[in-house]
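Forwarding the complex inputs:
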Amino acid sequence: MISERKKKILAAVVDAYIRTAEPVGSKAIAESAGLGCSSATIRNELAELVSLGYLEQPHTSAGRVPTPLGYRLYVNELMQRQKLSLEESEDINRRLNAKLQELDDTIGDVSRLASQLTDYPALALTAQSAATIRRFDIIYVDANTFILVVMLSNNSVKNKLVHLPISVDQSMIQRLSSLFNASFTGIAEEQITPLLIRSTERAADDTMGLTSVIAAFAIETLSEANTPSAFISGENRLLSQPEFRDPDKAHRLMSYLSGGGHILPAADSFGGTDEVRVLIGPENVAEELKDSSVVIASYDAGDNMRGLIGVVGPTRMDYSAVAAKLSFLAAGLSRRLGGGEAPPEGMHNKLIIKGDISDGSR
Amino acid sequence: MISERKKKILAAVVDAYIRTAEPVGSKAIAESAGLGCSSATIRNELAELVSLGYLEQPHTSAGRVPTPLGYRLYVNELMQRQKLSLEESEDINRRLNAKLQELDDTIGDVSRLASQLTDYPALALTAQSAATIRRFDIIYVDANTFILVVMLSNNSVKNKLVHLPISVDQSMIQRLSSLFNASFTGIAEEQITPLLIRSTERAADDTMGLTSVIAAFAIETLSEANTPSAFISGENRLLSQPEFRDPDKAHRLMSYLSGGGHILPAADSFGGTDEVRVLIGPENVAEELKDSSVVIASYDAGDNMRGLIGVVGPTRMDYSAVAAKLSFLAAGLSRRLGGGEAPPEGMHNKLIIKGDISDGSR
DNA sequence: ATTAGCACTCGGAAGACAAGAGTGCCAACA
DNA sequence: TGTTGGCACTCTTGTCTTCCGAGTGCTAAT
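Prediction (whole assembly, four chains):
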């Protein structure tokens, strides 16, 4: 439906534009791309690519610039899938190992890492999940102090130090600990009802309201662990992109990002596989992202949860490099966090790039 | 040494410049500041203020702009100390309460809050400290899994889930738990020597290297808790300041900030009191901050530790408002975290503003 | 000591101009 | 029919002038 040569030319335009951020002219293409024809021919082709909607010119007599549709075609078919060099992948693995010895809510570290690798702002999000309490312990410190320790089904452990104005004796603590371990484990947040709390309170013979304090912690921990959260870093890297030389534009996007990744809408529709998704310009739902692009990868965070790492940049983004890095990073995370059978260390997971080529384009 | 009227004029210049970010001319001052004299008189005074080094003009025939020295005088003597309105202080208290119900490493929240309040980028740092382990518990989950729980002398609690390829029986765990509680508490990081570990291992009759895993966690926790750490947020707010319209300039400062607050040098010399310190332009040691200003407040973080909250902005910064807010915030934190006798809730602590009027000025 | 008046200085905005890059189109050619 | 060289045309970008006005410094008068 679109000639092979046109594709080659389109690819050349996108490649060059990604590098230089300047509209690219016919002559440059004639020289760079090794198709043996002259700039005049290229011009004809370019004109057609414009009328097909893949390219546009900022003004008459300027070079061509890809439209979102053009990027889409590029991403889906044209760009050559990068695989990381050995050094790069080793570097990533090393950093992952260093950072994730113990993973708790290192979601921040993950986003930082992604941002450093790609040199774009990055965000990491945890998906909504349905973790339950797996174990509940109360450690007696002294008569006024104890520590609540909750282990969740997703293998994260939370704790809280409680300091009371009144004294509690150790046997009470022990009683509460085993009661909670018995009746608060394996259930979801909604199942912690006032009724359950009341009955536990009675069973423990607790007249000081201790039970509700502890129950509140349980609820809070569950809700916190299950609420999706986002972490953004490297916003400043936007500023090195020429399309954000306008401080207002940069500011708008950056404050949108800092305000938490409301990219969550995109996250919902995410499939289960280790795919990489690319959203180009107007394909984004969020108004603020309409002329930026987002690349998102998903990883297995264990316990049936999936996390996301995403990168935000101008539509003129180095999709191929970013996709490769993100994909590798996600695979590394899956391997470390995921429950199941992950591919072995060195392996690149295949790069499935999916994107809605919705009619929202252009 | 410097006439009263000059001071008034200087104050007027700084006030106006803080508001408008434009050089301010004699006429504007004559009208605004209620000193009954004409623009010509003001001009004479302005000329002298320039030769004294408090003001400068970007070029002949432009208004005047304060020099760092001018700001310094303004901050030390001239500016009127703001105290927050009732709504503002209530708002801050409410937010503090919401965020700090449980304070762990909410240092991030603190900086976020400071940034929101002041509308400048903010950073929070923990000082170097000498926390020790106060309590050590190991919770047995199953034969391959247990949870380490460490409570530090600064009342923070850390935990780690350990998953082993080999089986361990419960009595061993119990033995280790009490051994660690006995010999690893109350000591500093350096005191955890290979010797100590070896002897504990022997005492526990541990042939599987469990002891060293646990000891490693102890060391790591201590070192992490005692290493100063920084958290920055709201970098993007820089972009709304006209002096950072130049993206390169903005980028330089922002990436400096993101790279961790190397403002630590300034932190070292910080006194113990709840003072607020202002560093203007070249008074900063860091090259990148030479034409920005920093306002820092210190708070009592309990256990003989002090934390810092700082705000970064252009030299043309609303010192008075920022100082007031930061001071209030610091006081609120001290009250919640500090060990000792803190002033009661509603009270504004007195605003000590100190600053080196070092010879680095000019 | 203050003020009014005036000439002077600069920076910034607006316009004029040249250079250059890139296009579109046409006519010639394989 | 597809390709190519050539050429006129367009539009941006940078540079240079010009012009305006805000704001100054100075002087002479009060």
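Chain A has three domains: 4-66, 86-129+228-353, 133-225.
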